[in-house]
C-alpha cells in the first residue's frame, strides 16, 4: 500500500485536465517541494472534482475523484494564504463531500 504521512490542501483551483507533471510543478510552486509520503490535494473551480498527487519516494501517483451531486467543501483561495494540513479524519470527510472543517465541533454533542 501507499503510505501517506501528511496531507496538504491547495486552495487555488486548478484545471482538471492538468496531468501529473504539471501538478508536480504546481506542488513545487505552492508548497516549495514535493516531500516523500506526502499527499497534495487540488480542486477545480466548481469544487466538483479533486485530484490527489502523492510522492511515494520513487515516483508520483495521481488520483482523481468526482462528485456527481453537490460540491467538495473547499476553502476560498483568497482566505487561505498558506497551504492547509489535513488530518486523516478530515481527508476522509473531504473526499465524501462532508464538512471536514467542522469535525472538531461535530465530534462533541452539547446541550444548548
Structure, explained:
The protein has 112 residues and is an alpha+beta fold. Helices cover 22% and strands 24% of the residues. The protein has 3 helices and 5 strands, in the order E-H-E-E-E-E-H-H. It has helices at 20-31, 88-96, 103-106; strands at 6-9, 38-43, 49-55, 60-66, 84-86. The protein has a 5-stranded mixed β-sheet. Strand 2 and strand 3 form a beta hairpin. The protein starts with 5 loop residues before the first strand and ends in a 6-residue tail after the last helix.
Relevant terms:
112 residues; alpha+beta; 3 helices; globular
What topology emerges from the helices and strands here?
Layout: E1 6-9, H1 20-31, E2 38-43, E3 49-55, E4 60-66, E5 84-86, H2 88-96, H3 103-106
Parallel strand pairs: 1-2
Antiparallel strand pairs: 1-5, 2-3, 3-4
What level of helicity do the residues show? 10-25%
Main β-sheet, spatial strand arrangement: 4-3-2-1-5
Largest sheet: 5 strands, mixed
What is the rounded distance between the termini? 44 Å
* Whole-number mean pLDDT: 83
Cα-based radius of gyration, to the nearest Å: 14 Å
The shape, in one word, is globular
Q: What is the chain-wise order of helices and strands? A: EHEEEEHH
Uncertain runs with pLDDT below 50, 5 residues or more? none
Structure annotation, total helices: 3
* Strand-residue proportion: 15-25%
> Tally of extended strands?
5
Structural class: alpha+beta
Amino acid at each position: 500500500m501507499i503510505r501517506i504521512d501528511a496531507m496538504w490542501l491547495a486552495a487555488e483551483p486548478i484545471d482538471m485536465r492538468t496531468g501529473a507533471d504539471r501538478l508536480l510543478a504546481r506542488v513545487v510552486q505552492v508548497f516549495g517541494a514535493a516531500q516523500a509520503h506526502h499527499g497534495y490535494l487540488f480542486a477545480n473551480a466548481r469544487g466538483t472534482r479533486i485530484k490527489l498527487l502523492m510522492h511515494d519516494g520513487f515516483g508520483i501517483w495521481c488520483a482523481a475523484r468526482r462528485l456527481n451531486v453537490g460540491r467538495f467543501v473547499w476553502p476560498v483561495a483568497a482566505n487561505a494564504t498558506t497551504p492547509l494540513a489535513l488530518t486523516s479524519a478530515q481527508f476522509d470527510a473531504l473526499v465524501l463531500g462532508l464538512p471536514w472543517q467542522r469535525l472538531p465541533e461535530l465530534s462533541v454533542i452539547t446541550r444548548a
